[in-house]
User: Which sequence fits this backbone?
């Protein structure tokens, strides 16, 4: 790909990404309104035409690696693995 093509593709990406970000913000606002209505109704599920809307409390557990690192530094080092990833950005 020559420089001009690369620049055009990067410009296209930024344009489409901005559009997607705007759409995501609009969708998040609509979701906020649905959540507020469900909170006001005091329900976790509600029918909306052919859709079922759910806004439920989910409880989970996660491992507290910071506390484990402090309490058991040798075990933390023994079982800690290194990972790598690539980050893609167009700024």
Assistant:
């Amino acid at each position: 790909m020559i420089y001009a093509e690369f620049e055009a593709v990067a410009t296209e990406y930024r344009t489409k990404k901005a559009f997607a970000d705007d759409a995501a913000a609009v969708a998040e606002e609509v979701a906020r309104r649905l959540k507020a209505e469900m909170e006001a109704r005091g329900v976790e599920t509600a029918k909306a035409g052919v859709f079922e809307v759910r806004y439920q409390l989910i409880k989970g557990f996660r491992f507290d690696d910071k506390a484990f690192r402090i309490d058991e530094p040798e075990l933390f080092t023994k079982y800690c693995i290194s990972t790598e990833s690539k980050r893609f950005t167009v700024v």
User: Anything to note?
Assistant: The helical segments are 3-41, 65-71, 73-79. The mean pLDDT is 96. Residues 3-59 form one domain. Residues 3-41 form the longest helix (39 residues).
